[in-house]
Structure formats: structure tokens, C-alpha cells
Write a structure and sequence with these properties.
It contains 10 helices and 7 strands. The chain is of the alpha+beta class and 238 residues long. A hairpin with a 6-residue loop joins strand 1 and strand 2. The chain folds into 2 domains: 168 residues, Beta-Lactamase, CATH 3.30.450; 66 residues, Arc Repressor Mutant, subunit A (Orthogonal Bundle). The strands form 2 sheets. A 5-stranded antiparallel β-sheet has the order 2-1-5-4-3. Strands 6-7 form a two-stranded antiparallel ribbon.
């Protein structure tokens, strides 16, 4: 377990991009047998723009972001009320009783996000911030794993947020040209060998949109191929 923590800290210490952050949290979740995770936050300066790093089903995350579900998500409501980790989902001890909350949770469950645990993250610069781990159904093993590692996961969530908030909010300066956040995210994944289709699934956007951002980055950088744009992007980080 010590090796896993060290790898996590090393990944965050090296100026991580979205792809690095995703891999680091995926490895932590797998190590704790908490396979599905979602890190989410909204800056107080741009409250309408919700940032998300998650391996939840892409069909659900796309729907969530497109429909602004953070405004009706009972998990988000509760992160604004407490700083203590809590359990949620259908059948959870403190499941909200409002009809609209129940309807929301039932819809999430239909995508395989039925229950889980959330760690609220305190940050005055954010409207909300949290790290959640989800599953298709409650189980004693899941609850025991989270309870046993809760304090460690709280610390990891704080460390992760400190890096992710900056990485997801900053524009990338490449060759004297500023790329948008989406352009740099797409190039980051392209540098790891992902296709436009794969990037779209990871970022919860369409393949066409991912290709659009890659093409924009290529035009801004004045190169003819995505590979050349990736090379310039990689040189910036080296």
C-alpha cells in the first residue's frame, strides 16, 4: 500500500494534467476496491462551469453535465452542509426523502451509479468540491472498506483537489500560444495515444467535439498534424 501512496504523491508532484490526475485517482480507487470514482467541483468565479474527472459511465456523466444536474443532485446539496464523509444512494441510512431527490437517485441508478460515499472538500474558492466513490449496489464489504480507509481517503482527496483545481482551470501556454482548457485536455490525451473517439468518451464529449478541439489546437500552433501539435505540447511539459 505504501508504494501506491508514493505513486499517487509522485503523480501529483509532477505538474499533472487531466490524464495524469485521472490515472492517479483510478489507481487509488482500484487499490481500495472502490472501482468507480468522480471528482467534481465548480469554481465560485465560474459557478456555471462544473469540472469533472470520473470513470462513471460516459452516458451518465454526459447527461449530468449537459443537463446541469449539479443543481438537483442531493449529494451536492449535502456537500454544502457538512464536511464529514457520508453515505448516499437508494437504501442509504440518510437518503433524502424529497420526491425530486428520489427521482434523481433512481435515474442515476439506472446508469449504474446507485450508491456510494462522498468526501466533501472545503475550499472557499469553490461553490462545491467533492470526491465520490460509487457502486451499483450497497454491500457490507464496500461500506467496511470505506469506513476503514475514510481518514486516508480524506487526505488524498484534499491533495488531489489542490492539484486538480489548478490543472483544470488553467490555460496552457504552448510555443507562445494559449490553448483553451479543452484543447489542452484533448492534446494531453492524444499524447497518451488516445483517439478522438476515446478522448470523447473520457471527457464526456462527442468524438466530433474532441476532433474539433484537436484541430483548433493544431491551427493555433501553426502545425499540419496532430502529432506535431502533441510534440509541441509534450515539449512544453518537459
Amino acid at each position: 500500500m505504501g508504494r501506491i501512496f508514493q505513486d499517487f504523491v509522485d503523480a501529483l508532484a509532477s505538474g499533472p494534467d487531466r490524464a495524469d490526475l485521472y490515472a492517479a485517482m483510478r489507481n487509488i480507487a482500484q487499490a481500495f476496491e472502490l472501482s468507480s470514482f468522480a471528482y467534481i467541483f465548480a469554481s465560485a468565479k465560474s459557478p456555471e462551469e462544473v469540472k469533472l474527472i470520473s470513470n462513471y459511465p460516459e452516458t451518465w456523466t454526459s447527461r449530468y453535465l449537459a443537463r446541469g444536474y449539479d443543481a438537483q443532485d442531493p449529494v451536492i446539496y449535502r456537500t454544502k452542509e457538512t464536511m464529514d464523509p457520508f453515505e448516499w444512494g437508494l437504501g442509504a441510512p440518510h437518503e433524502p426523502g424529497k420526491a425530486r431527490h428520489s427521482a434523481f437517485m433512481e435515474e442515476a441508478a439506472s446508469f449504474g451509479v446507485a450508491c456510494g460515499f462522498t468526501i466533501p472538500i472545503s475550499d472557499p474558492s469553490c461553490r462545491f468540491a467533492a470526491l465520490s466513490f460509487a457502486a451499483e449496489r450497497h454491500s457490507p464489504a464496500l461500506r467496511a472498506s470505506f469506513e476503514r480507509q475514510k481518514q486516508v481517503l480524506q487526505l488524498l482527496a484534499i491533495l488531489f483537489h489542490a492539484k486538480a483545481r489548478v490543472a483544470l482551470s488553467a490555460r496552457a501556454l504552448v510555443g507562445g500560444v494559449y490553448l483553451s482548457r479543452r484543447e489542452s485536455e484533448c492534446l494531453s490525451w492524444a499524447a497518451k495515444g488516445k483517439s478522438a473517439w476515446e478522448i470523447g468518451r473520457i471527457l464526456s464529449i462527442s468524438r466530433r467535439t474532441a476532433a474539433f478541439h484537436l484541430d483548433n489546437a493544431k491551427l493555433k500552433l501553426g502545425v499540419r498534424t496532430i502529432q506535431q501539435a502533441v510534440a509541441l505540447f509534450a515539449a512544453r511539459a518537459s
